[in-house]
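I'd like us to work through together how a protein chain folds, taking it slowly. To get us started, please write out a protein record for me. Go ahead whenever you are ready, and we will take it from there:
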Amino acid sequence: MSTVTAYAAPAAKAPLERTTIERRAVGENDVQIDITFVGICHSDIHQVREGWGKAIFPMVPGHEIAGVVREVGPGVTKFKVGDRVGVGCMVDSCRVCDNCKAGLEQYCADGPVWTYNAVGKDGQPTYGGYSQKVVVDENYVVRIPDGLSLDVAAPLLCAGITTYSPLRRWNAGPGSKVAVVGLGGLGHLGVKIAHALGAEVTVLSQSLRKKGDGLRLGADQYRATSDPKTFEELAGRFDIILCTVSAPLDFAAYVSLLRTDGTMVNLGLPEEPVQIVLQSLFGNRRSMSSSGIGGIAETQEMLDFCAEHGVAAEIELIRADEINDAYERVLASDVRYRFVIDTATL
């Protein structure tokens, strides 16, 4: 066991505060990682505030972890001391169900062991990346290519794979038209990745306030959803709509923008129930779907793709003592486009 400094929420809706936690000793197949940077995901805020249901406290959030290998167990074959590595949203799974065998560990039949706010196979709570170190089984660690700086790579471990996986699943590429709803932490990477895949990309945002950024990041069009003409002029246009917002929408209006056999993929998870008008799907065999992160192999594929195509997160680097202020700014949409904590400031 080792004691490390971390930032934790002591109770639901409480401000995060500096504390210490215990990390397990390095086991046979474990990798101990010195965390250098960790992204702040909107889901961190949902869970700290119990927006998605009862949670485990004290909670150390953080599942966009980038760092350097400090120690490896005797059975580790994939990594060595000094390697640049990352850890995303999960740190274990059953490994034997059909989904795990297919590389879809995020859909493990028993449920994956999440990086934080979960209970590991040892019966102990998992603690996330707002900390100095983490110990993870090598099978749930990925390599960060040299072409990516660790600070801008960290958000790829959640926001990057969350957008990359559905774009690949629904065949975004040359000749396809993709719309990204919302230009935030997820959306800005969705634009970059869809553009790098060769798709025609349109951002759908409430206003044109971020239009310059959207076009710079790779969007071909940027349209305001507050303008009724947007829905009239873009009707039946898109093959894929990635919805990255965590708020209820007029889903029927967005579905009307899909071509025949088009799919709207929901990546944001509103805390309240939403309504879907089934008639909006009926006319052109349109689909409403969702997607959750990606498996370990696909996450590595995503990182390699991003390094090859120069795709990285747009970040604002902060000190650990700025975390609570950063949470409020995320809720106010006052970040362009991902906060990343410099863990040297813990």
